[in-house]
Amino acid sequence: MWPGLFSGHDTIVGNTGDPSIFVWSLEWTPFAIGHHLNPLVTDYINYPSGANLMWNTSIVFPALALWPVTALFGPITSYNVMAFLGMTLSGWCAYLALRRWTRHWLSALTGGLLYMLSPYMASQISGHPQLFIAIFPPLLVLLADEILVRQRRPAWLLGMLLGLAAACQLLTGSELLTISGVMAIPALVTLAIAFRDRVAARTGYVLRAAVVSVLVFAILAAYPLYVQLFGPLTVHGALQGFSYYTGVTGFLIPSQLELISGPARVPDSSVYIGLPMLALAVVVAVRLRRRPEVLVAAITLVCAALLALGGHLTIHASEPILPLPWLVLEHLPVLEDVLPVRIMLAGYLALGLITGVFIDAVIEARPRLRLAGLSVAIVALAPLIPYLPITSGRFSVPAFFSDGQAARLASSGSVLVTPYGTDQPYTDYAVEVWQAVAGMPFRTVVAEAFLPGPGGHQWGPALDPLELELHDLGDLGQPAPGALSPQQRQSYISSLRAHHVTAIVVGPSPGETQVVEFLRELLGRGGTATAGVVVWTGLQP
Fold it and tell me: Which of 334, 437, 411, 398 shows the shortest CA–CA distance to 531?
């Protein structure tokens, strides 16, 4: 992560696309709580309508945990700390979970590193903190082992911890919570069948822990879920609008995310395992199938891979061969917003356990066999090494927003900031990032968020004539109109009034000159050029 962490205050780990809304969220959550505002609903974007942040992965829990970092160093640095801690703590929690079934710390460390540096994580670290903060799945494994198997501590305590962890995951990202719940089902069924003679004796303890966990989760998550399901500006339908899945070759051919890269490219998340690791997993699972943890891991890996294939079996970007279980699941509520390839996260955790058990055997083998086993492990693990260093991106933040000048903008009404467009291709010019870096001193018309719309939702607001014009000029660099007709002028002024615009800030963009020329014609006066932007203040909505 070195290039993204230490290249400057405006540089981040990953790209500058999706992270912009997360940088904004890191600033918004503590700002909202500090100003007695609802952190789950906002009108600081898409003013005056606002947005429901429970539908927009607002990472409330990480934002609260990183509040001191954000306050001291700003939201961009806080995002980098989140990337570093999210990935590292995910691997550490996987190590803690795997250590329960491995006899040597090196075995658990190898499995934890496989989980932390898996193709899934290498993909999500580019800009999806709600997914690369993958702490919950290994914590769920730890707590499930205590509740279902060991039962050494008070049931109410473990239930409370499980409910707390689930609520924190909901306020980090609901998709990973859903994936964890789905993948817990085959593991529970496998355990129940393997230990059917012990189920009755352990049921009471499990039920007591389950009741407490449900109660704790309900108490902590009741209001966020109410806002999401029944609050203002709720949205409906499959928000992703697509369903990333993989063909069989996706498991066998490395993607561009691996150091030993290949031609395959699975969008959004790689599911690559590699033939050597797959062969190793099969051999270990068959030879040690009587060990319950190996059996559960093998079943989990198979189920995760099966669901990652999506609704139909394909080979490699080929025609569907036959329907698969996901074809039914993808139409169920909640599951409709899960991308199948992301389910492989559970598969990599299971693969980490299988690998750890194998490393145990290698460490304890005779010297000659130990050398052979070590060679097998290297051959199996080497193809999974991700391409390094992790990519980095840089936001272009005008000094106007970073040196305190934006604080003099009117706090009432809204500020129209350009470049403006819900599909702007120049994502390093991110208005929501500028707003966050400035400390949220103003509301803005722009909204990179899911909002109510036709069919249940839409991405960003429907653009009115003024916003379409600004988008064409600023984002696409089209020529400014020579003169405005009375009808055009009236339409544009009506748009400013509808959004209660009291100031306009034109930031750097491909069409900045055209936007300034257009606004000078519309407002009848030029703006003030200062600190990398052009500002019009004193507008009377």
Answer: 398
